[in-house]
Design goal:
By secondary structure, this protein is α+β, with helices and mostly antiparallel strands. The protein is built from 10 helices and 11 strands. It has a 4-stranded mixed sheet with strand order 1-6-7-8, covered by helices on one side. Strands 4-3-2-9 form a 4-stranded mixed sheet, with helices on one face. A 3-stranded antiparallel sheet has the order 5-10-11. A hairpin with a 2-residue loop joins strand 6 and strand 7.
Length: about 400
C-alpha cells in the first residue's frame, strides 16, 4: 500500500483455515519436514503435496527419503478434522514418491567452508512490518487470520457443527493511513446441515474485530454463495505453496514468489523471508520507521546476499540507504548466519502452516523471527548522515 497518508481508501486481505485444501497440503509438507529435522537437524527437504478427493500424493526431494510420510499425512488429516469417506485419515489413499536431493544442489549449498552454507537457490525475498497493529502486521490480514483462528477453536470445543474448511476476507477503510472501520467482512465456513452458521460466525466477527470498527454501514457477508457442507479436498484440489499471499502480508507488500512450506532452512525462499521479516519488524519496533519493506536477493551456492534493499515509504527517521547499511552491520545474512540466529534447524514448522507465518507470538522455540531483539543495537548504531 503506497497511498498518501491524507487519503481515504479501501484495502482488502484474505485468509484461509487449516482445513482449506491448500493448507492441508502445506501442513502435511511441514509435518514431514519436522519429522525429518527431528531425525537429523542437518537434513535437507523440499516436500510437495497434492490432496484431492480420496487421494493424497507426496513427492519431493530429501536426504531422508525413507521417512514414514504416509503415517505423518494420516495423522495430520485426522488432526485437522477430516474423517469421512471422501477425505479422511483412514479413507484416503496416499502415494509417496520421495527421492534423494540432487547432488549438484547439495554441493552448491555445502561448498562454502568457513563462509557458511551457500543459498539453496537463487531468488528474492521480502519482509514487511508496519505500525497498524501491535503485531506490526497489516490489519486486514491480521484480523482475517484471527477470525478463522477463533472459529477453529470454537469448532473444536463444539464438534459436529462447523467443518474444517473456511475462508475470510476483510475490507477496511483507511483514513489518514490508519485502519478506521470495516467496510465489508466476508466469511465462508463449512458446516453441518441445519447449523446456525450465520449466528456463530457473526458472533465471532463481533468478538474478534476491534471495538468500533463495525458500524451500521459495515457489511458482514456469511456464506454468500449459500450452503457449504462439502468442503476441503473432497470438494477442491489443494497444493503445497499456493497461498503465499495469505502466508505473508495479504498483498500489503510484495512477495518474491517462493513458497515456504516443506522447505528446510537452507532454502532461502523460507529462511531469508523469515530474516527479512525479522529485520523489518525490528526497524518498526525500534521506532526507526512506521512502515518498512526489506528485500534480500541471493544467488545459488553463494552465501552473502547479492543485495539488501530498504524502503520506509517516507516514514523513516534516517535515510533508507543508511538504514540498509546499519542492518548489514548488525546481522549476518548468510544462510548459515540466518539459520543460527533464528534457530531454524529445529522441528518448528507445522504450526506455521496455517494463519500466517508472520505476526505470531514467539514462544522461545517457534516464531523466533518475530522477536524484537535487535532494537537496542539498531537504535544504538550511529547514522552516517542526518536527515533534515
Amino acid at each position: 500500500m503506497t497511498q498518501a497518508a491524507d487519503t481515504t481508501y479501501l484495502f482488502t486481505s484474505e485468509s484461509v483455515s487449516e482445513g482449506h485444501p491448500d493448507k492441508v497440503a502445506d501442513r502435511i509438507s511441514d509435518a514431514i519436514l519436522d519429522a525429518i529435522l527431528a531425525r537429523d537437524p542437518e537434513a535437507r527437504a523440499a516436500i510437495e503435496v497434492l490432496v484431492t478427493k480420496k487421494l493424497c500424493v507426496i513427492a519431493g526431494e530429501t536426504s531422508l527419503p525413507d521417512i514414514d510420510a504416509e503415517a505423518i499425512a494420516r495423522r495430520v488429516i485426522r488432526a485437522i478434522g477430516y474423517d469421512d469417506d471422501l477425505f479422511g485419515g483412514d479413507s484416503t489413499r496416499i502415494q509417496v514418491a520421495l527421492q534423494k536431493q540432487a547432488t549438484e544442489i547439495a554441493s552448491a549449498v555445502d561448498s562454502k567452508g568457513e563462509e557458511g552454507e551457500g543459498a539453496g537457490d537463487q531468488g528474492l525475498m521480502f519482509g514487511y512490518a508496519c505500525d497498524e497493529t501491535p503485531e506490526r502486521m497489516p490489519a486486514a490480514l491480521l484480523y482475517s487470520h484471527r477470525i478463522l483462528e477463533y472459529l477453529a477453536a470454537w469448532r473444536r470445543r463444539n464438534p459436529g457443527i462447523l467443518g474444517p474448511d473456511a475462508k475470510s476476507q476483510l475490507t477496511l477503510e483507511y483514513r489518514d493511513g490508519t485502519p478506521f472501520r470495516v467496510d465489508t467482512m466476508v466469511v465462508s465456513h463449512q458446516h453441518a446441515k441445519g447449523a446456525d452458521v450465520k449466528g456463530i460466525v457473526r458472533a465471532a466477527v463481533e468478538e474478534v474485530l476491534p471495538k468500533g470498527w463495525l458500524d451500521e454501514q459495515s457489511r458482514v457477508l456469511i456464506n454468500p454463495s449459500g450452503s457449504f457442507i462439502i468442503g476441503g479436498p473432497a470438494a477442491d484440489t489443494g497444493l503445497t505453496g499456493r497461498k503465499i499471499i495469505v502466508d505473508t502480508y495479504g498483498g500489503a507488500a510484495p512477495h518474491g514468489g517462493g513458497a515456504f512450506s516443506g522447505k528446510d532452512p537452507t532454502k532461502v525462499d523460507r529462511s531469508a523471508a523469515y530474516a527479512a521479516r525479522h529485520l523489518a519488524n525490528n526497524v518498526v519496533a525500534a521506532g526507526l520507521a512506521e512502515r518498512c519493506l526489506i528485500q534480500l536477493a541471493y544467488a545459488i551456492g553463494v552465501a552473502e546476499p547479492v543485495s539488501l534493499y530498504v524502503d520506509t515509504f517516507g516514514t523513516g527517521k534516517i535515510p533508507d540507504g543508511d538504514l540498509a547499511k546499519r542492518l548489514r552491520e548488525t546481522v549476518t545474512l548468510t544462510p548459515k548466519g540466518i539459520i543460527e540466529r533464528l534457530q531454524l534447524r529445529r522441528p518448528i514448522y507445522e504450526t506455521t502452516s496455517a494463519y500466517g507465518h508472520f505476526g505470531r507470538t514467539p514462544d522461545g522455540e517457534r516464531f523466533t523471527w518475530e522477536r524484537a531483539d535487535l532494537v537496542d543495537e539498531l537504535v544504538g548504531r550511529p547514522s552516517t548522515t542526518t536527515r533534515s
